[in-house]
Amino acid sequence: MLNDICRIQPGIKTKRISSYDRTGRNADYITIGIGETADIAVMEGAGIVKHIWITISCEDTFIRRNAIIRMYWDGEEHPSVESPIGDFFGQGWGEEYSFISLPLAAAPLKGKALNSYFAMPYGNGARITIENQSSEAPIRCFYYYVDYEVHPEMPASMGRFHASWRRELTGVHPESGENEWGTISPQEPNPSVEHNYVFADIVGTGHFVGINYYVDSPGPMWYGEGDDMWLIDGEDWPGSLHGTGTEDFFNSSWCPNELYAHPFFGYARVPDKLGWMGRTHCYRFFLQDPVYFDKSLHASIEHGHDNSLALDLSTVAYWYQTEPHQPYPELPAKEQRSNMPEIGVADVHKWRHEWRKARGNSGTLWGNEE
């Protein structure tokens, strides 16, 4: 990855657009009012965005979901990047926490510094915007750097960077219910992608380079028996790439529930409740092994084997492709991006109470009776 660091490249200029105080004082930020959209960087000609750094001060504690980052290349109408700002940089659920990977990071203080090192080429101008969709407060202080290169021209072989946020509250089969690990009854096979969670549905030529995967599980069962399934250029199931389980897809094993940070993969957030109940953030970047496609890519993952679990799933997928790209589904309104209620100890106790009543309300029921 460092092969080109020693290459002398005449004609390339390094530039920065930042929020520095144009008066020379120390108010090195901009303010983005409620409902406002700010252009934080507008570039002309050809170039490559090399690094983005952002930090935010806002009284709205959910601003990482309520602020939207968008990026436009070459004068396009529909953004190539569209995501809540926290999810894009590697923080789910509107939370602040540290996140370490090679292309993206949330750095000290306590994850407040958002960084991207993805290369983002353009041939005829670029624009990066931030929309404050909060109804509670302006973004009082928005600090940023956009570091980029100016090139004489951009080769036609350079793809454009894309990122898209998706979310789904997954459902389960009415007959079998939440039946992971065959706990309730024997599980059925799943020889299709029909009911999977889809994290990328792309038309064009390019390569897939990464995913941030945010899962909120309302129950204690392991959420990760889901296989990843990739259908390339319109092929049928099982496709060119077919996985063996969620943790396997994220390069770990045996139902992990611990923090781990590798440059390419890891677990940036894990729950500390009962089993795997709560919020887990997994990530995987395909920097050495991109998934190539010539016409299209349909990438999905089961939510439990045979899609047997109700989960709150949200993802940001990252890829490069030729333009024009297929416009993304309309971003859900901010009310639809709010978190599901947290399930806690009291909820589990209430479940146990109802279970006890359903079994005769004996004073000595333990909890594992059939």
Describe this structure in words.
With 370 residues, the chain is mainly beta. 7% of the residues lie in helices and 39% in strands. The chain has helices at residues 63-66, 85-89, 246-249, 345-358; strands at residues 13-18, 30-32, 37-43, 46-58, 67-73, 81-84, 99-100, 104-107, 113-116, 120-122, 126-132, 139-151, 160-169, 197-203, 206-217, 228-232, 241-242, 260-261, 265-269, 278-285, 291-293, 296-301, 312-321. A hairpin with a 7-residue loop joins β5 (67-73) and β6. The longest helix is centred in the last third of the chain and has 14 residues, at 345-358. The radius of gyration is 22 Å and the shape is globular. The termini are far apart.
From the helix content, strand content and strand pairing, which structural class follows?
Answer: mainly beta
Order of helices and strands: EEEEHEEHEEEEEEEEEEEHEEEEEEH
Shape, principal axes of CA atoms: globular
The CATH homologous superfamily of the largest domain corresponds to Protein of unknown function DUF2961
Strand content: 35-45%
Major sheet: size, sense and barrel closure? 11 strands, mixed
Please supply descriptive tags for the structure shown above:
7% helix; Jelly Rolls; mainly beta; 2 domains; 11-stranded mixed β-sheet; single chain; 23 strands; 370 residues
